[in-house]
Amino acid sequence: MIANVGCSSLAMAFLAALYGAIAAAYGARRARPRYVESARHAMLLTWPLVTVSALAIIWLLVSGDYQIHYVASVTSNSMPTYLKVTALWGGQAGSLVFWSWLMAAFASAAGIRKWHRDRELLPWVVVVTMVTLAFFLGLVVFFENPFARLWLTPEGRQVTALFQPRGTTPLIPSDGQGLNPLLRHPGMIIHPPTLYLGFVSFVVPYAFAIAALVTGRTDDRWVRITRRWTLVAWLFLSLGLILGGRWAYDVLGWGGYWGWDPVEIAALMPWLTGTAFLHSVMVQEKKGMLKRWNVILIILTYALVIFGTFLTRSGVLSSVHAFAQSAIGPLFFLFIGVTFVASLSLLIKRWDDLKSENQLGSIVSREALFLFNNLLFMGILAVCFWGVIFPLISELFTGQKVTVGPPFYERANSPLGIGLLLLMAIAPLSVFGQTSWKLLGRALWKPLALSFMVPFFSALRGTTNLGALLGYWVISLITLVTLYEFWRGALARRRRHGESLPVALWKLTSRNRRRYGGYVIHLGVVLMVLGVIGIEIFQTETQGTLVQGEQLTLDRYTMIYESLTQFDTQDGRNVTRAVVSVFRDGKNVGELYPRRDFYYSSQQPMTIPGVRSTLEDDFYVLLVGWESIGLSGATFKVYHNPLVNFLWIGGLVFILGTMVAAWPDRGPEPVLKLAKKRAATARSKIGGLR
Amino acid sequence: MTEGNPVETNHTKQPRRWGVIFAWALVLALLGTLGFGLARAQQGSIGVGSSVPDFTLTTFEGDEIRVADLRGQVVLLNFWASWCTTCELEARELEQVYQMYKDRGVVFLGIDYVDTEPEALAYLEQYGITYPNGPDLGTRISQAFRIRGVPETYIVGSDGRVADVMIGPYPSLQEIITDLEAVLGP
């Protein structure tokens, strides 16, 4: 019953989306507002319909209705309820429903807000979002239906079908296979939804950009409407990436946080273009430049979102993230093709309308530095894209699949990353328009001189690694420049308004949220880079097989293997757990319990490290093997990860900064005033020319 | 905005056509590559129940072993490489299981994927591996199996069909034994 309700509301949502897309396009083309209004209603209907469907799936998951194929494949009796709920996005079919649900919510939100003000653009926004939604819902309804049931043929074969095939009897397994153990981690509960949120919310800026291209309204309107959307999308994407790194560090048991896996890169690529967009869009708002570039960036971001989803779900590339092979690959391919071709055609059509209003002033002006920033981001994107696509190209031309590994990405991206960090240090001091080297130099020299102190003192304290010293220098410079900006702004406010320094600082930030939120993000990046330096340059590791009482030493740490126990748990695991005592500089600092969980239902093991975590470093112990008889000998792999926690702290600061920047403004949009001012200046210039 | 710069317009007109051609070529090339990758992925890899692709392995000692000749015996095929760190996790265990089962007619074959001979031989010596091993020349064997990476292990039943596939290293000795016992039957 519940399944039938869920399934039919899914089908209705699909029809509503399809109708919405067609009616909106027809209404906009023929100037029939009634059709557009009706399309909008259809769009607003999709979200409640998909909600009903998603709730039905959750109900089935929690109640353990194992005749439903999806329920049997992602849950089991022993799973706790919260994991059963989150199993909604644990498999292909459910995660597609979840994706559609978010998509419908965002489309509705875009349709509810200021519908009457943007009448010109919104019909096409409806078209784009509803086509995307209809595509995803179509996949779910026709190819990956989460409500399909299991049936048994008279020959004893198991089949999956929505309706009972002739001659079959219902098959109700007594238990399900359970969720992939790798996904049973708190980070995993929020990592996929945040990434999906990021991915899906980029559809809205793309839809507005396409609407602007279709209607020929190539002024800043679409940029202004979607600025906050983009920031929110970017916030979730960043959060998803950070949580993914944390999950890898905690669960995958290789002592790292980022492995340059194709799917990680697929999620990073839209983030790169999104970050570039967030910077270059400011140039368009302030100077009316880079209009074409901004449209290209937003199209690229959306294309990369779809591309990334395609890669994960089509089985084209092998990765820890890939879903099982399925029939939806070719359809996705078709959708990508249509998206690319349609976007490119529109862009070419409107190319001449998207001309810059201004020309680039000085090479050290803010807009020029933003342009360099964009070029560097595009460089990193090119490296990543080439690395992801290379196995396919090599197979196409040589017949052999050659994959590029982390060294390729690290070597190619490091100089570009350092370039970006340098820009991050200089650009805040530069101004829009005409500026000179002299002005920039005058603002820069003090922080520059001070920044050499940190590498100097760390060299005195024995750091000899040049990469680390260079890294310390760059991040000190960024920190000093950023703090100097806060200081300078707050001082100016104090002088002007007579406020106390904390009040001035608070007001400065809250009145210019995007700018100062951006600076907080920069500080987050600084902390994250510190963590990366720690783990990439100073990480040490060792391994050894120990009998009870033996010890293993790594840097300042010594661990003693105390004991090993094996036991079964209520939730269907066999746990092998070691107890090791940890000493730092000879002083006992506690015990760690690295363990290996073996999940009976999925026949999969999972290695959980024992970690001693301090601000200074992590001591990370993995239990990689043991003797099955007597449990006396065990093999451990041990990592010492200095500074790694700055990566997570930096991540938090980063997210905080993005929230500051994305926080809604009260009162009129400041950008609107800016655009008016810019238009007035342009008019007076033209008047002057006449 | 309305005031076009004539110099700029002349300058941009000509390259525009080439720009458009270039953009289309790029998009079509990308779609072509993706389509090709998709077509390959749709073939899938060799799974449980598929009949084992026939190949001849020339071992490091120079012996030739043809898989078709081994019909009637249970065969364990392990793809590995000396540069593969996860392969090391199961190397000793595989040899241990080989010692336990070689008298029961189980054949072990190691297929060395994209490797250099001195390193491969050093690896075999380091882990004391005695079952036959040979290089996958021109990656012909791994292509026939469409492996995703190393290590991968295929257990072929006496009927010549793949009975078990392990992607990645075996987590422990016990799991190799369990899988092998399941294929050997009671």
Summarize the structure.
Chain A has 690 residues and is α+β, with helices and mostly antiparallel strands.
What's the arrangement of secondary structure elements?
The complex is a heterodimer of chains A (690) and B (186).
Chain A lengths: L1 H28 L3 H31 L5 H6 L6 H6 L5 H21 L9 H22 L5 E4 L5 E4 L7 E2 L15 H16 L1 H13 L5 H32 L9 H26 L3 H24 L13 H22 L16 H33 L7 H21 L10 H15 L1 H8 L5 H32 L3 H11 L1 H26 L1 E8 L3 E4 L2 E12 L4 E12 L2 E6 L2 E5 L4 E5 L1 E4 L3 E10 L6 E10 L2 H18 L7 H20 L1
Antiparallel strand pairs in A: 1-2, 1-3, 4-13, 5-6, 6-7, 7-8, 7-9, 9-10, 11-12, 12-13
Helix pairs in contact in A: 1-2, 1-6, 2-5, 5-6, 5-7, 6-8, 7-9, 8-9, 8-11, 9-10, 9-20, 10-11, 10-13, 11-12, 13-14, 14-17, 15-17, 16-17, 17-18, 17-19, 18-19, 19-20
Chain B lengths: L5 H38 L12 E3 L5 E3 L8 E6 L4 H17 L5 E6 L4 H10 L6 E3 L4 H6 L6 E5 L5 E6 L5 H12 L2
Parallel strand pairs in B: 3-4, 4-5
Antiparallel strand pairs in B: 1-2, 3-6, 6-7
Oligomer: heterodimer
Q: pLDDT average of chain B, as an integer?
A: 82
The number of helical elements of chain A comes to 21
What can be said about the biggest beta sheet of chain A? 6 strands, antiparallel
Mean pLDDT of chain A: 86
Strand content of chain A: 5-15%
**Rg value of chain B:** 25 Å
Number of strands of chain B: 7
Instruction: Return residue spans of chain A where pLDDT drops below 50 for at least 5 consecutive residues.
Output: 319-324, 668-672, 685-690
